[in-house]
Amino acid sequence: MIRIAVGIAVFSLLLHSAGLADEAEQIATTKALEEVKANTPPDEVYAIFNRFCKANFGAKAEPLVQQTFGTHAAISPASLWTHVSERSATIGWMTNVPAAVEITGAKAEPVTGERHFYVHLWRLKDLKPGEPVKVKITCTNPANRRRKESRTVTITPKRPEGAVDFPGDLPGPPYVIDRPGYYLLTKDITAPRTAIEVTTEGVTLDLAGHTVTYGTETVPKSSLPTSG
C-alpha cells in the first residue's frame, strides 16, 4: 500500500510539473509573439509563430479535442492519398487529432511538418523506377504519446507516360511551357528571375521532390519603370 501511495504521489507530481512547464511555455511564446517587430526577419517570425501554436493549440492544450475525437492518433483510411512519379512520390492523409508523424521504409521529408496538424503531406525521394518500396506511417498523439500505426503502404515509382523532362527537353530558365502535357522536373533549379512560365492550359507540372528557387537577382532601381 505504501508503494502504491508513493507511486501515485510521484505520478501526480510529474503531471503537476508538466502542467507548470506547459503554462510557462504558453506565457513565453505569447510574450515572444508580442515582441515581434516590423523588421523581424520572416523566418524568425514564422519560428515564433510555430512555437506559439505548439504551446497553445492541439490535443495537448485543448482537452476537448481528445474528448471528442479520441486519445489515440488514428489515420482516416479514406483520406490516404498518393501521387507517384519516376523517382519520387507524395503521400497524404488525415488524423483524428493533431499528430506527430514518422515515416520509415524510404527517404522521406514532411511538406507540412513544422508543427502538429490534422492534415499531413510527406514527400518520398531518391526512389528507383520500377522498384516497389514499403513505407510505414507512425502517428503519435503529442498529448499522451499513444501511437497508431497505419498499414504498410506500397509505392512503385514509374515514369509518367509522355513526360517532358526539364532541364533536358526544354531550354531555360525561364522554362516556358506553351503546350499541354506532363512536365517533369529532373533536378533542383535556380533562376535569377522567373524560373517556370506556363502559358497554356492542360499542363501537369511535376516537381518530383525538387526545389525551385527564383528571383535571386537584385533588380537595380534604375531599371524599374517610372510613372508619369
What does this 3D model show about the protein?
With 228 residues, the protein is α/β, with parallel strands linked by helices. It has 3 domains: 2-56; 77-155, Sandwich (Immunoglobulin-like); 164-213, no CATH class. The chain is 24% helix and 29% strand. It has helices at 2-34, 42-56, 63-69, and strands at residues 81-84, 89-104, 108-110, 117-124, 133-140, 147-149, 153-155, 164-166, 175-177, 181-185, 189-190, 196-198, 203-206, 212-213. Strands 1, 2, 3, 4, 5, 6 and 7 form a 7-stranded antiparallel β-sheet that branches. Strands 8-10-13 form a 3-stranded parallel β-sheet, with no helix packed on it. It has a two-stranded parallel ribbon with strand order 9-12. The chain starts with a helix and ends in a 15-residue tail after the last strand.
Write the layout of secondary structure elements.
Layout: H1 2-34, H2 42-56, H3 63-69, E1 81-84, E2 89-104, E3 108-110, E4 117-124, E5 133-140, E6 147-149, E7 153-155, E8 164-166, E9 175-177, E10 181-185, E11 189-190, E12 196-198, E13 203-206, E14 212-213
Parallel strand pairs: 8-10, 9-12, 10-13, 11-14
Antiparallel strand pairs: 1-2, 2-4, 2-5, 3-4, 5-6, 5-7
Helix pairs in contact: 1-2
List its salient traits.
alpha/beta, Immunoglobulin-like, flat, disordered N terminus
CATH architecture of the largest domain: Sandwich
Q: Supply the number of helical segments.
A: 3
Radius of gyration: 24 Å
Tell me the total number of β-strands: 14
Our estimate of the beta-strand percent is 25-35%
The sequence of SSEs as H and E is HHHEEEEEEEEEEEEEE
Helical fraction: 10-25%
Number of self-contained structural domains = 3
User: Any idea of the CATH class of the largest domain?
Assistant: Mainly Beta
Distance between the termini: 89 Å
What is the name of the CATH topology of the largest domain?
Immunoglobulin-like
The structural class is alpha/beta
Summarize model confidence as the mean pLDDT: 83
> How is the biggest beta sheet arranged?
7 strands, antiparallel
Unreliable stretches covering 5 or more consecutive residues: 3-20
Output the CATH homologous superfamily of the largest domain.
Answer: Immunoglobulins
What is the general shape?
flat
